[in-house]
């Protein structure tokens, strides 16, 4: 347990609490909810084994589910997101460059690569979550609106949090 | 055996994936919202505590508006009280003459507990509400939850100090309602979209009503007492089979700003349900 691990656990707890108390209450235009806690999954080190990523994501989703009375929904979506993380890396990370030891962030990946990575992951998460939700309740147009709205809102929040963290690291 | 261990070691990521997906799906499809676990929701003790602490802070934000509503409600009740007192006085003279019963015996069958809403959502398709009172305060599943200006939901899970209620903004909840002043009833449900409106279905076409008319509970389900405010008719349309109207009801409860609610129990609910069950057999 080094200092980075402890800090990441602290960040995860903080984001889950904020999600439960603050972000779940935001409901922009009746369609968009910021699902900011997935930043924890986005931030896991590139080299971390898939089994660990899956485990962390599943329990993260489960805790958020318990807080928002949606048993299984976020847990399943998080597990799926953790599973597609490796393919997304294979797709975007240039071969030959060594990103293995890094945690994905604006600073490490650079603007363009990080935006593509974060936007893809956020979109996939919203897609999984709302498709899972429509298993019990189906309304196609509303579904698309919800996926796109939440993707954009979450993406903006994640960029904010990431650049905030970056600035603080610089100052330290 | 060794092959099996090798296989597991080689594909352990897949195994993790499959186990987690199965567990999530089991939670997701456990079905009936009435039979949910006490642990996987905001009736969980730790979660309820977090929401209580957060409500201790945010509970003050809406107080000015709550205060205004209470004051106006108080004024209305005061006026009503005055009027009733005057009537009562008039009747008490008459009662001596023909020994008239003063209170409606039906209304005596309902008790209520006042509780605070500590967590609430309007953003999901199936929304739930967490309350700060539980079985220790006499709350049991299937009690009605009512705010000062309309219906809110039905209690479904209870622990000692907290309760979770299914909100009216839940596509799985149906409440029997009627147009005030008539006896024709329909079923109120939510379409998962706008938290200000719900849909009242299966209203017979011969009923006479107009947009703006008041919708109240019918009292048939034994959960909600008869005549509790639900909302007003916004607009209406024919349903697919042409014999019924479906109307959009503007809910009188502001689900975005729930504070104190009353949890109402019907003392005769059990008896009524038992009787109805016997009648069906």
Give a structural overview.
- The complex is a heterodimer of chains A (172) and B (281).
- With 172 residues, chain A is mainly α.
- In chain A, 71% of the residues lie in helices and 0% in strands.
- Chain A has helices at 3-21, 39-43, 50-68, 73-92, 106-109, 111-133, 140-171.
- The mean pLDDT of chain A is 83.
- Chain B is α+β, with helices and mostly antiparallel strands.
- In chain B, the strands form 2 sheets. A 6-stranded antiparallel barrel of chain B has the order 1-2-5-4-3-12. A 6-stranded antiparallel barrel of chain B has the order 6-7-8-11-10-9.
- The longest helix of chain B is centred in the N-terminal third of the chain and has 36 residues, at 63-98.
- In chain B, 30% of the residues are buried.
- Classes of the chains: A mainly alpha (172), B alpha+beta (281).
- The interface between A and B is large, with 37 and 40 residues.
Short description:
The complex is a heterodimer of chains A (172) and B (281). Chain A has 172 residues and is mainly alpha-helical.
